[in-house]
Structure formats: structure tokens, C-alpha cells
Amino acid sequence: MGFKKQNRIVLWCFAIVFQFLLLVNGSKVQHSRLFASSFSVIAQDDNKVEVSFTKTYNPLDAGSAPLNVDKRYIVLRGSSGFYSYGIIEHLKGWPDVMLDELRIAFKLSKSLFHYMAISDDRQRIMPSEEDRASGQVLDFKEAVKLINPSNPKLKDEVDDKYQYSDEIKNIKVHGWISDTPHMGFWVISPSYEYCNGGPMKQDLTSHVGPTSMAVFFSSHYAAPLLGVSLTNGEAWRKVFGPVFFYVNSDSGIDHTVLWEDAKRQMNEETTKWPYDFPASIDYPHANERGSVSGQLVVHDGYINRDPFPAKNAYIGLANPGVVGSWQSETKGYQFWTQTDDSGYFMISNVRPGIYGVYSWVPGIIGDYMFSSYISITPGNNIDLGQIVFEAPRNGPTLWEIGFPDRTAAEFFIPDPLPGLQNYLYINTTVHKFRQYGLWNRYADLYPNGDLVYKIGVSDYRKDWFFAHVTRRNLDNTYGPTTWQISFDLTNVDPNGIYYLRIALASASYGHLQVWINTPSKPRPWFDTLQIGQSNAIARHGIHGLYMTFDIQIPGTILQIGENIIYLKQASANGPFNGLMYDYIRLEGPPQ
């Protein structure tokens, strides 16, 4: 079956806009659309047209954001779609500005597009904006229960745009399909080198509108930490994109055919990256980039005496910083890949610049950073040889809870309450965490007391709730919760130091306090104070920003027989305060 070329794309869209959510000198400007003040043709020949719409900062205009913006659009002969990218600039000496979000948003025709596709297993007929407007707003404005939708099959379902978020490493293609005519509109992102927060950063895709977005950066699942803060006259310039907006159609009725063609086009665009046609000198082509290769191995003497390959590890380049700083770095570019089964990697098509080398390994707690920064130059490959991740370790594992992969996905995720379901996620375990209201299920499952986990008896897949949340009281207030980890020791070294390692997959205005065997003491053994603003609990995420804590425990406060570690989530201002654990391990003294 052949696919028809579609060149009248704008006729199917209500709006195509670059959007900023920003703060100028502390004053909030809602969703600036960055309207241009001038237009020019950058390049034009028989095979390509590239045009530019620019906005220039006017310091005499109090309402003007202190940014120069160049919005580019490219159409290639024979291409069923168009490309767009943006160049954002803040010159030295300009006023402070905080950029919370940058995205290209499409509002498609309501009368045409009703079917949304994000991945192979996340596709469905969607409600309309009118359905949401007549629905019941739940605990926050984005979550709405559909009361009288135009499609009766959607009645009593919950709709929330955050239920369709994903990690940016997975946001390669998504969009909408129209029944009549049978056509698809797709957002294709062949690279995320210009995005903030690394490959696991979560963000929006498509949702009710019908809306589709290419999100370049945002504070979603991370809080303002992932915005771009330009202060003290800092100069900054960055290219976002290009992103490809693809349209396909056929004479049939099978949506799968259009979806599979969109995936094929996505693979084609990914293969072509970096593109050779953008005209901006700020976008380096393939021959102007470099690469980095090597082999990553892990050394953990309590797992294996010799270093072993870091299988399927994420390894990447980001601005110079400290261990783990890549996940909150916002102003530069990032380049990531995964190692093979032997730990070998090749990071290709890297922009020239100075970078740190960062990594994390599934199954290993913590982060890796190479000992020195590296300089990428055009056409050059840097071979790092074998590099060694010295895994965090003090002594042998006495017990552990979970699997260190920076998410809480392996823990127990409850069913949503009837009448608060998204039907797309009823018969799936992979996406079960995306259901609404799971935070309130904790009090239903533990009505008379908090979670108690017995080492050697309990199973974290069934007995460890996926989020350490507050408790909903009968008067609809919320209170702190204290979980217990009970474990037996057959011997204790009173002169030794034990280590409790806690890796958090997320913290949402949480507050972790830890007691060891003495919960009645007024002061905890360990206290984080309030941490995190990821909001992953409310936004149906299974992780936010990752953090670890290493707690030293002298043998003198442990005992032969039963010991209990008390984990208190002390922040209780509402239902969304809480923590998600990735992994917990108790280590004995060195041997």
C-alpha cells in the first residue's frame, strides 16, 4: 500500500507555536509564544527552502523577554512534512531570566483527529476538550473524570495529560490519526542531544486537544532545577532541534499501517542524524563532530574479585560538573548511548566542546564519572580504553531491597479504584503506575498501621509499596508514615561500621528520617530535611531525580537477634508529599 504525500499541513492545525514559560527578573510570564518581528529566507534552491522568523530583545519594552529567538522551518523536495528548530540567545549583560519550559506545540483539528498513538502499547481513542470541560476535576486540574463524554465508552474514565508522559529516550515518534481522511500527524525527534536531564528525563508527548508537542526542556518530574537560569549577565546560546513533523495517509482504515509507517520514518530520520541540510552555523554537520569510545567495567570486590563488564550501562557526555551532575545540567548538550554486553561503547556525532564522561549501570547503585574532562574536536575519535567504575561499597551485603535501576517499577503497584481508571492501562503491568490516585491506595491497603517489611520473609515485589506517601486520615487531612525494616543478625561487630545505602528514585517535597532500633528517641539517627520537587507521585511517574544517601551505623547500636530500621516520611502537607525508593542495602563491616 502506498502512502500519499501531504503538503498542506497547516490546514489541519489550529496553531503551531514555539512556547516559553519563563520568569523575567522574578516576574512570571505565562507561555510566551515568542512572536516574531521579522522574516527572512535563509536558503532556497530546487530541493530545499529554509526560512527564519526572528524575535529580537528590545530593552525599551518592559514586556519583552531578554532573549533573541530565531525560529527556523525547512521544507525538502519530496518530503512529506517539514523540519523546525530554534536558536535561543541571551547576550552578556542582559537582565536575569529563568526559562522553565521550551516546546513546539501543535493544536490539530478537533473534527479530524481522535486517535492518539505514543508507542506500540499506548494507543487509543481519546476524549475531547469538551469532554474534559464537562467532567469532574479531581485532586488537581489536569486530572478529570469524564462524566458525560461524547463517546459513551469513555464514561467514568480518568484523563490526565501526564498519563501519556515518557522518558525522552523513548520519545521518538508520537501523534494522531484521523479516520476520514485516513491520515496521521507525527512528531519525530531523531535526537535528544539538546534536551536537559539525560535519557531518563520524563516529559509530555501528545494529549487531549488534540495536542502534540516537541518538548525541548521543562521542569516536569524535576521541578525548577531543570529550567535554564540565566543570571548576572550570563551569555548563552543554544540550538534546539531540528524536529521533523511528518504526515502520512492512505486509502484504508487500519491505523496500524499509518503507525508502522511513522516508525519507519522515525528510523529513517534517526539514521540521517545529524542532518546535512540546516543552514545555521550553530548546527554542526557530521563532518564537524567527533566521537568517544571505550570499554566500561565495574569493580565491586563483593560481587566479583575482578572487574566485570558494565552490561547495558548508560554512558554519556555532558557539561563539566561533578558525579551525577548531568541529570540537573541544563545549558549544554548531552550525548548518550548504552554499552554492549562486554561494556564497549561508541558515542558518535558529538558537538565540539569540553565534556565530562558520566555513566550509571543497571544493577549497581550510584553514579560514575571519568577522572578528567575531555575535549571533542571535529572529525576526531577519542578512545578512552578501559575505564573502571569503582562501585560504592564498604562491606558485604547483609540484605537488600529492590533492584538498583533508578526507578521504583519493581515494587508493588496497586490497582486503581473502580471509577478512577484510565482504560488504556487496565490490562498492563508495565504501565500500571500511570493510573490515577494510587497514592490514596496506601491507606486502603494499610488501614491499621504502616508497612512492615521482614527481611527473608517479605517480597519487595508484593510487600513494598511503590511510593512512601502520606496517610489520608478520616477527616481528609494527611499524616506522616513510618515504615519498618525488620532483620535478624546472628553476630554483631561492636567495633565495626555498618553502612545503610538508600537510593531514591524520586522525592516530592519529602522528608526522610531514619531511626535504628530506638524509635522513641526524639532525634533521628539520620535526617534529610525536606528534599525533592519532582512531583512524580501526582504526575504518574515511577521516578524523578535520583539521589543516594550513605548512612554509617556503628555496631554498638545493633544487636544480635532482631533489629528494626524505621523510615519515616515526615512531610505531610498533602497527598503528594513522598518518596520513591530505588534500592536499599545494608552492608556489614569490611572483610
Automatic annotation (TrEMBL):
One biological process term in Gene Ontology: carbohydrate metabolic process
Alphabetically ordered keywords of this record: Lyase, Secreted, Signal
Top-level taxon of origin: Eukaryota
Annotated Pfam families: CBM-like, fn3_3, Rhamnogal_lyase
Domain Rhamnogalacturonan lyase: start-end pairs: 311-383, 397-586
Residues in the signal sequence: 1-26
Protein name as it appears in the record: rhamnogalacturonan endolyase
